[in-house]
Amino acid sequence: LLDNDARLAKPFEAMTRSKPPPGTPDRRRPHGGAAVGVALLGCGTVGSGVLRLLAENAAYFAERVGVPIEVRHVVVRDVNKERTADCDRRWLTSDIERVFADEAVELVVEVMGGIDAAGAAIERALGSGRSVVTANKALLAERGPRLLELARESGADLAFEAAVGGGIPIIRTLRDAFASDEVGEIVGILNGTSNFVLTRMKESGASFASALAEAQRLGYAEADPTLDVGGHDAAQKLAVLAMLAFGVRATEKEMLVEGITELGPRHFAFAERFGYVIKHLVIGRVRAGKCELRAHPALVPRSSVFANVTGSLNAIKLEGRALGPCFLSGRGAGDMPTAVSVVSDILDGARSIVAGIPGLITRGRPMKPCSHLPRGDTTTSYLISLDVADKPGVLAAITAALAEHAVSIAQIVQTRGEPDAAEVVLLTHEAREGDVMAAREALSRASFMRAPPFLLRIEDV
Ligand SMILES: NC(=O)c1ccc[n+]([C@@H]2O[C@H](COP(=O)([O-])OP(=O)(O)OC[C@H]3O[C@@H](n4cnc5c(N)ncnc54)[C@H](OP(=O)(O)O)[C@@H]3O)[C@@H](O)[C@H]2O)c1
After folding, report:
1. Closest residue by CA, ligand 1 atom 47
2. Hey, which residues are catalytic here?
3. Are 297 and 280 spatial neighbours (Cβ–Cβ below 8 Å)?
4. Ligand 1 neighbour 166 (Cβ under 6 A)
5. What is the 8-class DSSP label of residue 161?
6. Residue-wise pLDDT tens digits, 148-203
7. How many Cα neighbours within 13 Å face the side chain of 103?
8. Model confidence over 40-98: pLDDT tens digits?
């Protein structure tokens, strides 16, 4: 029996304790009753929520972890700024060196955002064997695979539940619930600003500009909304999900990314007419070993579960090969929803530190060299709207141009516009993106076109 114990103990030891780089203090020790020391980098919207949750539930968290969570430093740019009551002024510093000089800091929580300073701090924390919790999707989209590798090497945890979907537990679901299954598809609404703007445009017939202004007034959109309404924020979140679900590295270069800025009331009228709702979707799929990643506005059937995800809500549907569909929806941003995810990661990280087994969250996630499906090879059906001169032969020329590029029409409607003008709206059968783009290009050169063709992809999700 003793022999067996020794034999069993060995692989377990190997599994839970990878070798830290030379010079790294070995923090992976049974904890022995001391509090887990935490440093918070950033104390803005999310950081303030984190401090509030930690203060309000301190006793309960201590019970769950086995020892208290002790905030030791809060790093900010301006120590003189007004902070909430949960932020003890003695913690405040603008000098990050205080964090790394403090041996009692075992967990670093990065909620300051940005790439360079945040990235350097996280690398340094992981390099010194400290576990890290971050909410920084932009950083993870850019450097996620490298940071995961660093965490694996140092035997520390890198947790980032809040980086995608705010308070929705999507990372845990992928990491834990889907550990025994293979994810074949991810579809989501991951940008609350875009979803709020699209909801208002549909409900009130507002223009993009006025719906965005309303979102800004109500705090659902930043003063500079480019990342959100341009589709880039959703694409960053898709890159993080694809890294976990499909084990691929992806940047915007490998994705099809479009925002909602070109949409107007007439597009909502088409959508209504054909039984669809316009949503900004992220779509990730692996088919025949190739990965397809897209973030763009799309028509979804009125009966789709995504059609009823309104306002600033987020939603994600995962398709497991064995499980089938799994749907999560909730608040994708805001101080407290995001803080819930950050603090849950802090509790996980602290529990692992106390148990002497940090690094389990990150372990076993090797990145595969990515084989991306070329953008032109993705297939879906499309709505194409054409402003044309109302004269004989135009319809025949449109159908001929589409047929020449192997794009087949499922429905076509023509309405009269101004005198001598018509609007032709057609729905295609499933077609290759490359073929549809070539047909659009050909049509845009035709003499009867009065404006560039407008196109929306249709997703039966
Ligand atoms: N807000 C959300 O709903 C939400 C949701 C999900 C994820 N996130 C992510 O969470 C992170 C934080 O977002 P947030 O909305 O809380 O940001 P925020 O309100 O702008 O707060 C940023 C905080 O970081 C500090 N900071 C920024 N750069 C710094 C630097 N170089 N050195 C030291 N301190 C620095 C700021 O200090 P001062 O206070 O002195 O200015 C501030 O306290 C971002 O990565 C964001 O993408 C946010």
Report:
1. 136
2. 237
3. yes
4. yes
5. G
6. 999 999 999 999 999 999 999 999 999 989 988 989 999 999 999 999 999 999 99
7. 5
8. 999 999 999 999 999 999 999 999 999 999 999 999 999 999 999 999 999 999 999 99
Residue 33 Cα to ligand 1 midpoint, Å, equals 32
DSSP-assigned letters across all residues of 308-344: G--TTEEEEEEEETTTEEEEEEEE-SSHHHHHHHHHH
Cα–Cα separations (whole angstroms), residue 138 to 60, 116, 242, 273, 431: 32, 11, 14, 38, 33
Instruction: List CB contacts of 226: < 8 A, sequence separation 6 or more.
Output: 232
Answer whether 45 contacts ligand 1 (Cβ < 6 A).
yes
pTM of the model: 0.90
Distance CA 413, CA 255 (A): 32
Q: What is the DSSP letter of 372?
A: B
Q: Is the CB of 215 under 6 A from ligand 1?
A: no
**140 close to ligand 1 (CB < 6 Angstrom):** no
Is the Cβ atom of 135 under 6 angstroms away from ligand 1? yes
pLDDT 10s digits, 387-422:
999 999 999 999 999 999 999 999 999 987 778 899
Pocket probe for ligand 1: among 76, 86, 100, 236, the residue whose CB has the most ligand atoms within 8 Å is: 76
How far is ligand 1, taken at its centre, from the CA of residue 124, in Å?
Answer: 19
Average pLDDT for 339-362: 93
